[in-house]
Amino acid sequence: MSAQPQIAYITPEEYLSMERQAEYKSEYFDGEIFAMAGASEAHNQIVINVLIEIGTQFKKRPCKVYANDMRVKVSPTGLYTYPDIVAVCEQRHFDDDQKDTLLNPTVIIEVLSSSTADYDRGTKFEQYRSLDSLKEYILIAQDKCHIEHYVRQANHQWVLSETNDLQDMMELPSIQCSLAVYDVYDKVEIVPPL
């Protein structure tokens, strides 16, 4: 019987020390580091569109919206991740004085790709749900007009609504914002299926 190679366990503190000096972003979970892939043009355009829309609605309000580089720590599970967009209207809580790891997101938005869609809908969302602060989770397809919007109810159940209509308006009650689907997909080239 051959021995399996042992992978050294990396502590959260070691991960943060390495991550803060790294040229590329990585996620962390359960002692392992996972490199993140780059994003497509459509992915980047959707993130910019949503960031502009929410940011404009946050003017003169104490709320903040972050894109891509704001790390989120899911304290109950130990996951460190970089959501595409994070919004918070409460007092922001950070993991330490570096203020680069948010602990209490109100809304998390992920732009789906073929390589991340199952993870974003499954394991990642399962971990996000353990955050008491999280009230809404939004998944945006980049290859077609399709948005999934999950809203936490008072009984801690999550209700899903979906749209694939560019004329729809999505309300984000936890941060008192709205997103026009047309604006989310502005300048995004969606190739119709064959």
Features:
alpha+beta; tt1808, chain A; six-stranded mixed β-sheet; 21% helix; 29% strand; globular
Protein topology:
Elements: H1 12-19, E1 26-29, E2 32-35, H2 41-57, E3 64-67, E4 71-74, E5 79-81, E6 85-88, E7 101-102, E8 107-112, H3 117-121, H4 123-128, E9 136-141, E10 147-152, E11 158-163, E12 169-172, E13 177-180, H5 181-184
Parallel strand pairs: 4-7, 8-9
Antiparallel strand pairs: 1-2, 3-6, 4-5, 6-8, 9-10, 10-11, 12-13
What does this structure look like?
With 194 residues, the chain is an alpha+beta fold. It has one domain: tt1808, chain A (Alpha-Beta Complex), CATH 3.90.1570. The protein is built from 5 helices and 13 strands. It has helices at residues 12-19, 41-57, 117-121, 123-128, 181-184, and strands spanning 26-29, 32-35, 64-67, 71-74, 79-81, 85-88, 101-102, 107-112, 136-141, 147-152, 158-163, 169-172, 177-180. The strands form 4 sheets. A 6-stranded mixed beta sheet has the order 3-6-8-9-10-11. It has a 3-stranded mixed beta sheet with strand order 5-4-7, with no helix packed on it. Strands 1-2 form a two-stranded antiparallel ribbon. Strand 9 and strand 10 form a beta hairpin. It starts with 11 loop residues before the first helix and ends in a 10-residue tail after the last helix. 27% of the residues are buried. The mean pLDDT is 91.
